[in-house]
């Protein structure tokens, strides 16, 4: 089996992407094909797929936002405009991770890591300040009757509990910033909640304003 290849999503990938999403999340309604096509039209540079032996095995989708617009609690539907990506704001400074999913049959091939790397490269190339995402907490349902979701997430950060998604994101260099309650209500394993994570682009350079033109020197008066 060949190594995974990460490339930009194409329109002819859409049927395979919808089918993969349906198989990975059978309890969640998959995106209609028209929705994925719209995402490509809005921000093609932010959409990636992972391919092994010609078969799509993973996907990462992103938009750019002004993070100040979303500092308070929000849902996935809010920040992605129900997956249409109409909230994409090219003048923003934050690359927002809207979705990542990987075929569980090829775990161990580092596909998730490669998709995250593609996002980091994009963030640097576009000179964005950071990547922010809200990650699933699929292990939380096993503890929900004993501890609140904030305590669960902190115990994962402290190393007392394991969560497959949050532990992966911490290994990828993301920092845990808190919990967004009710982020994805249909996610039963996470009880609807998500972790808020951030990766800072240390290569980010604020855009310089152009230097003002030199002051015009008036000719000396004739005396």
What best-fitting shape do the alpha-carbon axes yield? Answer: globular
**Structural class determined from secondary elements:** alpha+beta
Strand content: 15-25%
CATH domain topology of the largest domain: Aminopeptidase
Helix proportion range: 25-40%
- CATH arch. level architecture of the largest domain: 3-Layer(aba) Sandwich
Return the average pLDDT rounded to an integer. 91
Could you give me the name of the CATH homologous superfamily of the largest domain? Gcn5-related N-acetyltransferase (GNAT)
Q: Which radius of gyration do the C-alpha atoms yield?
A: 21 Å
Order of helices and strands: EHHEEHEHEHHEE
Strand elements, count? 7
CATH class assignment of the largest domain: Alpha Beta
The poorly predicted ranges are 215-223
Spatial strand arrangement across the major sheet: 1-2-3-4-5-7-6
Taking the alpha carbons of the first and last residues, their distance comes to: 89 Å
Largest sheet: 7 strands, mixed
Tally of structural domains? 2
Number of helices: 6
